[in-house]
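Problem 12. The chain below contains 320 residues. Write out its predicted structure in token notation.
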Amino acid sequence: MKAYWISPGPAATHVELRDTPAPEPKAGEILARVRAASLNRGELLGGVHGAAPKPGGGECAGEVVKVGDGVTGIPVGARMMGRCGGGFAELALMDAREALRAPERLTWEEAAATPLTFIVVYDMLVAQGHLTTGQWLLVTAVSSGVGVAALQTGKALGARVIGTSGSAEKLVRLEKLGLDLGIRTRAGDFHDAVMKVTDGKGVSLVVNNVGGSVFGECARSLAFEGRLATVGHLDHVLSATLDLELLHRKRLTVFGVSNRLRTAGQRAETVRAFARDVLPYFEDGRLRPLVDRVFAFDELPAAIKFMESDAQVGKIVVRI
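Solution.
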């Protein structure tokens, strides 16, 4: 089968199309014929320079063609979406515990844009962030894939959402998704605008996609008992100063959401909670992922360059 292998480079990600043997599902796995796969910045623009190439594509959607021992309730032909190993390929494996039924309302491209992004948003907003109706949510870099999903999920939960972006055009586009206030900035200078719109109280939850350069401003913008989720580092700044007096006085909570050190069982538990609490929103139409652009399979290098340009609003998908 055809499959893309990727490796981080000093200036850009190296991509190589290879002919590789079709994988076989082991116990607890399913094999899917991939129809679409989503790009994720952490996989494609991160990593260690010089690392060995590996199959690319961390999430996909497709039809089940084979199941491994012990897998029940997932028939051949089922439309599935989820975390996978090597989604930029004609066939890919999924851990059955982390696979989700793809709602019929979603196209293959939309289904591929859902699992990782919306599950990490669920982790931030619901599982750890405890966001409730009427609360204020601040999302930095709101036009990113995670940013848009946080905006959409926040609105579905009844929250009011503030978003930052360096592009006024992107903020205007996101008003159609319910963005209550857009702040045009890429710097840590949004505290005053946040305080003004929240009547001096601050926000209940921050999703920080930008990184260390805005960490302090995010903390300052929190309300009493506010929560700060750190998920990305678009600025490549991996450290920041934490005001301990502010943390103490406001009883703040700071947390991360990386799955890198979690076990498959721990990830599966979050997937099951997402399926219970949020997947029905996709099934009845309240939520639908925003796909900015779809590329053909042989255009994956161009799709990565488009991601590097930071021009997208929402997700970038490759159609297999």
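Discussion. The first strand starts at residue 2 and ends at 8. Students who got a different answer should revisit the alignment rule from Section 12.3.
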